[in-house]
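Dear colleague,

Thank you for sharing your sequence with our group. We've completed the structure prediction you requested, and as agreed, I am returning the results in plain text so they can be pasted directly into your records. Please verify that the sequence below matches your submission; if there's any discrepancy, let me know and we will rerun it promptly.
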Amino acid sequence: MFGYVRPNREELKVREQRDYDALYCGLCQALGTRHGFWARMFLNYDFTFLAMLLDRETGRTRPVRRRCPARLWCRKKDCLCLDGGSAAADAGTVLSYWKLRDTVADGRFWERQLARLLSLLFRPAYRRAAALRPEYDRTVRECLEELQALERERSASLDRTADTFARILRSAAPPSGEADRDRAMEQLLYHLGRWIYLVDAWDDLEEDGRTGAYNPVSARFPDRSAEDAAYLRTTLRHSLNLARSAYALLEPGRWQGVLENILYLGLPLVEELVFTGRWKAVKKRNSRRTDE
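Please find the predicted C-alpha cells below.
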C-alpha cells in the first residue's frame, strides 16, 4: 500500500501523539476482529486518517490494553476501538485485496507469485469486507480495471490516471445521510487520493525505470527536468489546497489537532522528503521506532 498520509510527529502534542498511536493500534484490532489475522498485515496509515474523519464521538474514549499479535515481543499498548475504525478497516481490506490482484496482473514475476499467494490467504477477509461494503468493492474493481487499461496504453495523462485512484478514495467513506457532510468528505478524499497517487508515482520513478514498469510521471515527462518537477509539485499543491478547503467544511471533532497537523504539516513534509529522495530512509527509520 502507500502510507504517505502521516502527521509531522515533532509538531504533535503529547496527548495527540498518544491518541493517534492508540487509534492506529485500534484499527489493527478492528481489522483482526472483523476480517481475521491476515487483514492485520495490511494495516495502513492512510486509513488511520480515514478513521479519524469518520469518528463522530465527542467524548473521551477509554483505551483498552492489548498485545500486538504481529510483534509479540512488544509490551501491551493502548488501543482506541472506534466506529470510524471499523468502517476504515472494511474499506482498507477491500482496497488491499484489489491492489494485490492488480499486482498479480501487472507485477514482475516474483511480485506476481507473492501477490497471488497473499491474495489467496487474504480472500476470506476480503469477502467479509466486500459483503459489508458492496458498492465500494464495485467502485474499487472498476477503477482499477480502468487504471490497468491506461497502463497498458502507456497513458501520458497525469489527470486520467490520478483520477482513477482519486475516485477509489472518494468512495471510501460510507454515506452519513448528511448531504453537505458527504459532499465535503468526498471532495476531501478525492483530492487527497489524487495527491497520494502522484506522490507515489514520483517516489517509484527510479524503481520503475530499472524494471521498465509503467509510470505516469515518466510517460508524461520522458526527459525529466527541474521545470517538470516544479510543474508536478504545483499540481500537488493545488490538490492539497482543494483537500484543505473541503476539510474546512467538516466538523472534525476531537481529532482536529491531528487532522490539521497531517493536512498542513505532515503531507507537505512527506512530499518534500519524496522529492528530495529521502522518504524511503525516513520511513524505514520511523518503522523501526514504531516497533519499539
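Summary note from our side: The two ends are 22 Å apart (CA to CA).

Kind regards,
the structure core
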